[in-house]
Amino acid sequence: MLKHLVATLALFTSVVFAGPKVSVETTLGSFVIELNQEQAPITVDNFLRYVDDGSYVGSQFHRVIDGFMAQGGGFDAELNRLPTYASIKNEADNGLVNDAATIAMARTNDPDSASRQFFINLVNNSFLNYSVRNPGYAVFGKVTEGFDVVQQMAEKPTARKNRMQDVPVTPIVITKMERIQ
Prior knowledge:
Number of domains: 1
Helix content: 10-25%
Largest sheet: 8 strands, antiparallel
CATH architecture: Beta Barrel
Organism: Vibrio hippocampi
Protein name: Peptidyl-prolyl cis-trans isomerase
CATH topology: Cyclophilin
CATH class: Mainly Beta
Signal peptide: 1-18
Domain PPIase cyclophilin-type: 25-179
Catalytic activity: [protein]-peptidylproline (omega=180) = [protein]-peptidylproline (omega=0)
């Protein structure tokens, strides 16, 4: 009886917390992100807006730092800035943390300046988490399949290009990005 109850609760919990999934194909390989719409509704809706309108396709991972993160979504393969929708409210106080394989929104010094750029944490980056003194960076999902592809990004040589640092020498471009669930 107890075994059956535990199994039922586990199934119920996975259904309740299962969020939309997005497949990301890049010139380096593919991975899947599961989004947490329950804890980051504004951020997930914003991200999915760019996924659904197709504007992430052709963008590149323009900042990749081994032992830190891989950032993308804001520039095309020639490093031209891509158009954005309005900035969103920072949801970094949602209880999600910047652990390895999580995806978060990039922003400027203004906590509410995130628009289309995101980053995937290569390691646990607790200094990016929300606290009383730190507005933090809003985590809104996690890479659940293909994290090795993201890790491979950090192995590629980078250089300074167009006043930007840590740009992969060979662009890592998003070739397809779509909801799969």
